[in-house]
Amino acid sequence: MAIEWSLAGKTAVITGSNSGIGLGIAQQLAKAGADVVLNSFTDRDEDHALAAEIAADYGVTARYIKADMSKGDECRMLIEKAGRCDILVNNAGIQHVAPIDEFPMEKWDAIIAINMNSAFHTTAAALPKMREAGWGRVINVASAHGLTASPFKSAYVAAKHGVVGMSKVIALETAEEPITCNAVCPGYVLTPLVEAQIPDTMAKYNMGREEVIKKVMLERQPSREFATVEQLGGTVAFLCSDAAAQITGTSISVDGGWTAL
User: Fold this and answer.
1) Which of 15, 87, 191, 252 ranks highest by number of CB atoms within 10 Å?
2) Which NCBIfam families does the record associate with it (predicted)?
3) pLDDT digits (tens, 9 = 90+) for 21-74
4) In sequence order, which residues have a C-beta less than 8 Å from that of residue 92 and are 6 or more positions away?
């Protein structure tokens, strides 16, 4: 049987996708032919313009739907408003760094809600649509911190470990159906947010750009290179293809060797 790589005729909903990793994933899925639904918690002209740009660039249908991923009812509403959801990419996430005994309760609650609970709500709403269509892909963007830990990131590490575990449960519950669920675990990715941190880090350590990237920012990433949003998008597109039909319940690391240590 020929392997089908095209995603034409499929609709992908990507949470937290008006910038960074989520946007990179949306662009790669659109490049593969999927119609896409972008999402974030804002509702600006530029959000809708971004969807229009993707539609024009790749010849697909693209829409932007505002939904706050910290609220379960809005997570489910996003899927209902999308109408169709063949591919669900749970990408939305936030971070806060602090020792456990100083970690603000509201930050803990927000990180758990957006990074983990949202994936539960969107998946619960999307699975019936996938079953009705007879095909589906759930891809949860976890992290290297879903497989290992760092100090001062208790909420993020807990949430991402939870996402990895939930991915396995979803995979087992859909194992006899044409639906798969996997977690993608990036290491450090060169997003606009990370790019903006480089000058301050250079000043803090009195180092040049390349030195601060390799010795400070990528200290735990053996390749000493950032992953790119295009690489993350390509990994997700692969997991949506027929080539990955028997890949389910696993974690795919895109971390330059971080979790091999």
Assistant:
1) 87
2) PHB_DH, PRK12429.1
3) 999 999 999 999 999 999 999 999 999 999 999 999 999 999 999 999 999 999
4) 15, 16, 22, 39, 40, 69, 114, 115, 118
